[in-house]
Amino acid sequence: MPRRGKGRSTPPVTGKAMALPEHQPTEEEQLRRAALEYVWIPMREPTEMGEKGEPYIFVEGRGVRVRDISGREFIDGLSGLWLKNVGYGREEIAEAVREQMLKITYQPFGATTVPTIRLAEKLAQITPGVPRAFFVSGGSEAVETALKIARAYHVRRGERGRYKVISRKGSYHGATGVAMWLGGGIGVGAGRSDYEPAYPGMIYAPQPLPYRCEFGAKSPSECAVKCAKAVEDLILFHGPETIAAFIGEPIATPPGIAVPGDEYWPRIREICTKYGILLIVDEVICGFGRTGKWFGIQHWDVQPDIITVAKGLTSGYIPMGAALVRKEVADAFVGSEKVMLRHIITFGGHPVAAAAALKNLEIMEREGLVENAARMGEYLLEQLKELQEKHPIVGDVRGKGLLAGIELVRDRKTKERWPQEAKVRDRLISKFLREGLYLRPYGETISLAPPLCITRSEVDEVCHILDTVLGEVERELGVSP
Known about the structure:
This protein is α/β, with parallel strands linked by helices. The chain is built from 13 helices and 14 strands. The protein has a seven-stranded mixed β-sheet with strand order 4-10-9-8-7-5-6, sandwiched between helices. Strands 1-2-3-13 form a four-stranded mixed β-sheet. Strands 11-12-14 form a three-stranded antiparallel β-sheet, covered by helices on one side. A hairpin with a 2-residue loop joins strand 1 and strand 2.
């Protein structure tokens, strides 16, 4: 809660009206006004923020907690934007960045640096069979790069007609020119009508979310098999000779953490291999320990052709991403200038960002944060299932590692969603903030992805807040326990 100001003495009453002292805006008020006027905060509208006394202005963080300019403290339930994997306040990373800045902060064109090389080597050691790294500045650029590599790869092989890309409905892969047209229009993608016409060659497959399977499947296994078959049906309908790549997150986050049945990813790999289609696995969110393994796809022991990474690569301390490419694919661009990949990102492989990434990965290994994500994630899911039994508003809980989702429904039997006028999301956000949990659900789905350094007692604290807030929302909506 905001700190209370000290009381003021009442001025003496006189026969003449006294001029009230003019209010001088505090630094906090000045900053908030400046933010509303000058900062374009993504996915927020300034008028709405101003009416709520926002935006929140954060000034400090340690571990899973952040503190705003007013001194209020919150647990960050979503790790910034799914990326603060090692948590806040890691001085080691700041020191590594400073040390590198004092050496060299960029390189002459056409060259590289020591930390960039070391990072590429490290990624080759920990990623599943994708040893060559094309570094970029973030996740959207990583996806754009992967798509360009996939299309150019087929050109190198004499199959120029392969340009189409299959993605899943309800997924999200970035906000840049091509990446924004992947997935079925959720979140940022919902505003794509502003940027039409659509990019050519986009094909949309069903999302393997067992709770709301497009095919009405009765089990995760049945949903996985049917959704994979739908991908093959799309390939045959459009013609295999026209398809360049399939792209998907191991676990899709926008639909509220869509964990597919175990048959899905192995079957998708078989289908892509059968028809000569490159398999791009988007690990921008799932990668670097988030799901309890270094990479989400490792839960299904599948070998991608390209992996896209960002976010957890540096835990958000400095922007960085990469497209990691299987040797057989990367070798198509080796041998002469005629076949090399003609693509560049100005800040890709920046030595300072590489230094931050190396230290970030060192911390993860030394502190066993991937293993902690697996343990705490299992404990978190147990707690969420108990909340599901207690609260009738909870229709489903799901997740892997420290990536969990709670789907709220009006009716458990029918899975009916709450109407927009119920303002479930607004109710949740305001109560989470009051209780000290910074979390902004999408619709009626609550996604949880705290930093991987979270402790058991902090998981308990998060679940206690969830319990309190869900109970209040149920009472406001007239839902009987």
